[in-house]
Amino acid sequence: MAAAGSRTALIRALGLPVLLPSLLYSIGEGAVLPVVAVTARQLGGSVPIAALIVALIGIGTLVTDLPAGRLAGRFGERHAMIGSAVVTIVSVGAFVLFPSLALLAAAMLVCGAALSIWGLSRQTFITEATPIHLRARALALLGATHRVGTLIGPFLGAAVITVAGTRATFVFYVVLSALTVAALLAVPDPDQERQKAERRVRSPRSTRALLGEYKQLLGTLGVCMLVLSAMRSSRNALLPLWCHHIGIGSAQISLISGLLSGLELMVFYPAGLLMDRRGRSYVAVPCMTLMALSHLLLPLSHSIGVLVAVIVPLGIGNGLGTGINMTLGADVSPDDARPEFLGIWRLVSDTGASGGPSMVSAVSAVAPLAAASAAIGVAGVLGAVGLVRFIPRFIRLPAPTATE
Prior knowledge:
By secondary structure, this protein is mainly alpha-helical. Helix content is 84%, strand content 0%. It is built from 16 helices and no strands. It has helices at 3-32, 36-42, 47-75, 77-97, 101-129, 135-164, 168-186, 192-201, 207-213, 215-245, 250-278, 281-297, 304-320, 324-332, 338-366, 369-394. Helix 11 (250-278) packs antiparallel against helix 12.
């Protein structure tokens, strides 16, 4: 199958069952996240309280990663996706009807949990439903769909705010979540029989048993993914702070962020194609290396021109890594306990995502901001070396055929 044919077949096979619901859900998420802190302040919360409510989203995700695997394994991926969207509707809808600081906090904690279940379920669904020679492309397409949704969401959210006010974005989130449920229910599950058969013969393994069996994998390749997630999330704090440090204004920072997003979306599919045809290392190692290089060079940029040149590798590297964490997790997950294992895998990477901004904060509290960027860059170099060593050790895929 030619590359163009593979792409078309993937979009047709996954578009209605997974990609359209993912796009709708991500648009709602992208619309509401930027206004959570502002809403908390409007309801009388202090700055620390507003920051805590935002953090509750990540906390909800982290504490649900392991139970999410159990839920997806027991009820099936599609049912878990529907359930997570319904939970979002109920929790955010309760806040819309009875707005208060306490309900906002509860809604964000529950939404974080729903995001964990949603993400794991759709990853497991695609891993099971897609042939292994198309896996990286399918998961890269899924990752790109999420990014497009969270990119579109804030713009639509801004339009909603202009017309109806800040809290109307929560209504918008409820509407998009309801459309997500409708999309999932409208399309028959193409993988329903496989899921039913697996649930009948499945013998669930405990988290402790899986940790014991895969501790070497998680302590090596898993740690490399933790570092990659930390680098990705740290840029959300590091880049705006550095721009402010060298005198770049808010409008220019937004343009720079848009440039990065554009670069990421340009390279995601070629990266998935290369992973499927040549192997995971051909993308994972350059992804980590380019992002580490940008972090190491960032302290040398003191003008907008040099800054743009320095962050181009960051955008390309992050785009190359679209879906890489999901792909590697799928590759190493056991067939008889895939959802449960992926819950552990996501917990490792989500810990890194939560720790990236914290590392920037901790290092910059005792040293210049440049030191934080350099420290993350050094961690990225070590992570790239780890990927060179551990991907061939743990991932052995069948050789692609000439028709792929």
